[in-house]
TrEMBL record:
Protein's recorded name: Aldose 1-epimerase
Alphabetical UniProt keywords: Carbohydrate metabolism, Isomerase
A GO term from the CC aspect: cytoplasm
InterPro entries: Ald1_epimerase_CS, Aldose_1-epimerase, Aldose_1/G6P_1-epimerase, Gal_mutarotase_sf_dom, Galactose_mutarotase-like, GH-type_carb-bd
Residues that bind beta-D-galactose: 179-181, 252
PANTHER family the UniProt entry points to: ALDOSE-1-EPIMERASE, GALACTOSE MUTAROTASE
Enzymatic class: isomerase
Family: Belongs to the aldose epimerase family.
Pathways per UniProt: Carbohydrate metabolism; hexose metabolism
Pfam families in UniProt: Aldose_epim
């Protein structure tokens, strides 16, 4: 097990560092103190070949310029907030509108572009990085001073553990996630259309034309949203279902998880790579990369295109503040926000 730190670039006059974690099996995870961005996850295929299974850039400028959220921590609130406003304790709060009239992924002042304090740690069986950041009262339009701790841990059994803790001194909203784009083909060699996904979910949230939840909870039965027995991502891209076409032909939907253990399994049949995800969060956003632009390239030099990667964003329900029947994302001063997700990499 080992950790290293190298200079990656600069942002707003401050040095951005790349922290690399490596276990005894040769699996390696690298991340930045800019947005807690994950730049590399190197894992073997069934032949033992190590390749990067996440989409990333090789410089700071590209992360800022292209706004893909590749690998970043998202907050204060992941997803969209309708009309960039909400009400708490009879007081109205206005947020920055960065997607039409709506607020997306923390807006123009989100956690994905913050420089975090970072420190590494190591034991016999794991290595990790602990990131901390204090979001001041009024940042992004949100109330309360919120202290966040994000911990990335790499274990000797090829698990990447993400733990997010948060506290506030005033009633506020908090619903965070990691926005890594996975591609198990390795180094972006192919798109993700033939990735096989299995999810323990029998319901998903209906979206409107602005990709906001309508409040209606839909049954997956008989649709291409039924991943309970596994299906290829391609099914949703080719589907004429209105919910697939409304998001640009594919998926960008919150799935309600019915079980936490082995809740999500992603496989790439050609090389045998397998990813198993477990979480304490109530839902996962499956995003199939429908809106990826085509005028830039990832770090391996592969041109970006639709469906080059997919996101599995474990989190609370999006826009929950406007839907009282959704699980609450309100955080009180006497509470602690705790989100945990584990990604286990293997082959079969």
């Amino acid at each position: 097990m080992k950790t290293t730190r190298d200079k990656f670039g600069t942002f707003n006059g401050e040095t951005i560092y790349k922290y690399s974690l490596e276990n005894d099996n040769g699996m390696k995870l690298s991340c930045l103190n800019l947005g807690c961005i994950v730049t590399d996850i190197l894992v073997p295929d069934r032949e033992g070949k190590f390749e990067n299974v996440v989409l990333s850039f090789n410089n700071v400028d590209d992360y800022i310029r292209y706004q893909t959220y590749f690998g970043a921590i998202i907050g204060r609130v992941a997803g969209r907030i309708k009309n960039s406003e909400f009400e708490l304790n009879k007081k109205k709060y206005l947020l920055s509108a960065n997607e039409g009239k709506h607020h997306l992924h923390g807006g123009t002042d989100g956690f994905h572009e913050k420089i975090w304090n970072a420190s590494t740690f190591q034991t016999d069986q794991e290595v990790g990085v602990e990131f901390t950041y204090t979001s001041k009262d009024g940042e992004g339009g949100y109330p309360g001073n919120v202290h966040i701790q994000v911990t990335y841990t790499l274990t000797n059994d090829n698990r990447w553990k993400v733990r997010i803790n948060g506290t506030t001194d005033e009633t506020t909203l908090l619903n965070m996630t990691n926005h890594t784009y996975f591609n198990l083909s390795g180094n972006g060699k192919t798109d993700i259309l033939n990735h096989q996904l299995t999810m323990k979910s029998d319901r998903f949230l209906e979206l409107d034309e602005d990709l906001l939840p309508t409040g209606k909870i839909m049954d997956v039965e008989g649709t291409v949203f039924d991943f309970r027995h596994g299906r290829k991502i391609r099914d949703g891209i080719l589907s004429p279902h209105p919910q697939n076409t409304i998001v640009g032909n594919g998926y960008d939907h919150p799935f309600i998880l019915s079980e936490k253990k082995e809740a999500i399994i992603l496989k790439e049949g050609t090389n045998g790579r397998k990813l198993v995800i477990e979480t304490n969060q109530p839902s996962v956003i499956l995003y199939s990369g429908n809106s990826l632009k085509e005028d830039y390239a990832i770090k391996e030099g592969v041109p970006v295109r639709k469906y080059l990667g997919l996101c599995l964003e474990t989190q609370g329900f999006p826009d929950a503040i406007h839907h009282p029947h959704f699980p609450s994302i309100i955080l009180e001063p006497n509470q602690r926000y705790m989100a945990e997700t584990t990604y286990t990499f293997g082959v079969e």
